[in-house]
Amino acid sequence: MSVPESTYLSPIWRDDIFKGKVIFVTGGAGTICSMQTRAMVRLGANACILGRNASKTEAAAKDIATARPGAKVIGIGECDVRKIESLEAAAARCAKELGGIDYVIAGAAGNFVASIDGISSNAFKTVMDIDVLGTYNTIKATLPYLLRSATPRLLAVSATFHYTGMPFQAHVAAAKASVDSLIASVALEYGPRGVVANVIAPGPIAGTEGMARLASSRPEQIAEHERAIPSGRFGTVRDIADATVFLLSDASSYINGQVIPVDGASWRRQGAYTVGVDMGAKYPDFLEPGRTTEGLKGGKKDKAKL
Ligand code: HXC
């Protein structure tokens, strides 16, 4: 499926600003990270994208390569960010086939909607492992290559839920808070060696896996949600891709160790507003005993084991 350029990139950027550069992206077949990668490829970079699903990842790589004639995009499937060996092998292959690694996007993430009572200890650990250990493993496996680049940059994809806390996202909020913290330490430890490390924190972005999991599918709730966002609309994948281009370009080289929300100021009004609920009930009514699984998107009906 070829994607019109206006879907993922503003017309303000100069061609070839990333010419000769290589980007390495975990979760690169996903709805947000594939557009971040596509924008970078369109503007000159070659790319290596990683995912657990081999056919999805390989197909996404082929499709992203259509963004620029002559682009090289490698898709590496069966890569689980929870396994450091998996990432080390992928980073080595990327460097061998594309000549190095200049930019890294740590985008692989796990999410489901569940209350604290409704997830097991193992479910909590699963999200922590994918998001936190996965980001750490990505950093660990790619730093040796980044340190050889003239423009080493790391960008982690986080969220905004932990700024306020969020019902049914305790596991995700805890994980993303850790991701933000990890990147701060990378900036402190590796900034003196030239590495620029930041976090991009998408808000509600239309048409993404995150929104499919988290946003209501009821039209009246969708409209109410959009109205509650100070910028008056859901974000687009282009909003995230444009911000990514800026954050990986020379124009932002003094922005280091920062968390950049791209959310239309949405997080400033979140908290009591909830995600992942498909019923009319408002906070805190849906938390009443016996009601926490009612209307929960993809939610399990039974109580989790400890
Ligand atoms: C409660 C659940 C659950 C649910 C899974 N679990 N789904 N618990 N409610 N809806 C529990 C399982 O029962 C199990 O616990 C534990 O989680 C691990 O589940 P597995 O299926 O064995 O794990 P795994 O195969 O590794 O799958 C990981 C996953 C899955 C996170 C559960 O959803 C996944 O692979 N997701 C990857 C894609 C993804 O989530 N993308 C979202 C990106 S959107 P027990 O105790 O039974 O063993 C995003 C948006 C962020 O991140 C926010 C932006 C604003």
From TrEMBL:
Annotated Gene Ontology cellular component terms: peroxisome
One Pfam short name: adh_short_C2
Domain of life the protein comes from: Eukaryota
UniProt entry keywords in alphabetical sequence: NADP, Oxidoreductase
InterPro entries: DECR2-like, NAD(P)-bd_dom_sf, SDR_fam
Entry's EC annotation: 1.3.1.124
UniProt KW Oxidoreductase keyword: yes
Leader sequence residues: none
Gene Ontology molecular-function annotations: 2,4-dienoyl-CoA reductase (NADPH) activity
TM spans (from-to): none
Catalytic activity: a (2E,4E)-dienoyl-CoA + NADPH + H(+) = a 4,5-saturated-(3E)-enoyl-CoA + NADP(+); a (2E,4Z)-dienoyl-CoA + NADPH + H(+) = a 4,5-saturated-(3E)-enoyl-CoA + NADP(+)
GO biological process: fatty acid catabolic process
Keyword Membrane: no
PANTHER family (alphabetical): PEROXISOMAL 2,4-DIENOYL-COA REDUCTASE, PEROXISOMAL 2,4-DIENOYL-COA REDUCTASE [(3E)-ENOYL-COA-PRODUCING]
Name of this protein: 2,4-dienoyl-CoA reductase [(3E)-enoyl-CoA-producing]
Organism: Hypocrea jecorina (strain QM6a)
Phylogenetic classification of the source organism: Eukaryota, Fungi, Dikarya, Ascomycota, Pezizomycotina
